[in-house]
């Protein structure tokens, strides 16, 4: 089955279940070498391949090296640590003492 046909089946499933796939969130990545490029057409929308895509909180790159993911995770963790260090945490901690 081609990728284009599989995508059409997925879109049909969304429609059957009263959902709509967001065109701006559709991504295509080809795993292997970074020189691989391509595109697919789904419901008259062309999706070009990318070298890095974000799926939930994980960054995937075409070589599956996870360099981008590790870099972003370190940056985010450092940012949160600095917020906590400076008392800028978004979370409040309430201590209740029971006697």
List keywords for this structure.
20% strand; alpha+beta; 99 residues; three-stranded mixed beta sheet; 2 helices; two-stranded antiparallel sheet; 33% helix
Protein model, in words:
There is one protein chain. By secondary structure, the protein is an alpha+beta fold. The protein has one domain. Helices cover 33% and strands 20% of the residues. It is built from 2 helices and 5 strands. It has helices spanning 3-16, 67-85; strands at 28-29, 39-42, 45-50, 52-55, 58-61. The chain has a 3-stranded mixed β-sheet, with helices on one face. The radius of gyration is 21 Å and the shape is flat.
Show the helix and strand layout.
Elements: H1 3-16, E1 28-29, E2 39-42, E3 45-50, E4 52-55, E5 58-61, H2 67-85
Parallel strand pairs: 1-3
Antiparallel strand pairs: 2-3, 4-5
Shape: flat
Give the helix tally. Answer: 2
> Which value, in Å, is the CA radius of gyration?
21 Å
Quote the average pLDDT. 78
Give me the count of strands: 5
Secondary-structure-derived class: alpha+beta
Domain count: 1
Q: Distance between the terminal alpha carbons, to the nearest Å?
A: 67 Å
Report the major sheet. Answer: 3 strands, mixed
Uncertain segments are none
């Amino acid at each position: 089955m081609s990728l284009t046909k599989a995508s059409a089946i997925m879109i049909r499933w969304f429609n059957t279940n009263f959902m709509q796939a967001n065109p701006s969130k559709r991504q295509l990545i080809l795993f292997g070498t970074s020189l691989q490029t391509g595109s697919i057409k789904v419901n008259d929308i062309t999706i070009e391949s990318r070298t890095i895509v974000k799926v939930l909180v994980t960054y995937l790159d075409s070589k599956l090296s996870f360099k981008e993911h590790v870099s972003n995770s370190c940056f985010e963790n450092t940012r949160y640590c600095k917020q906590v260090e400076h008392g800028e945490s978004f979370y409040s901690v309430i201590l209740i003492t029971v006697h």
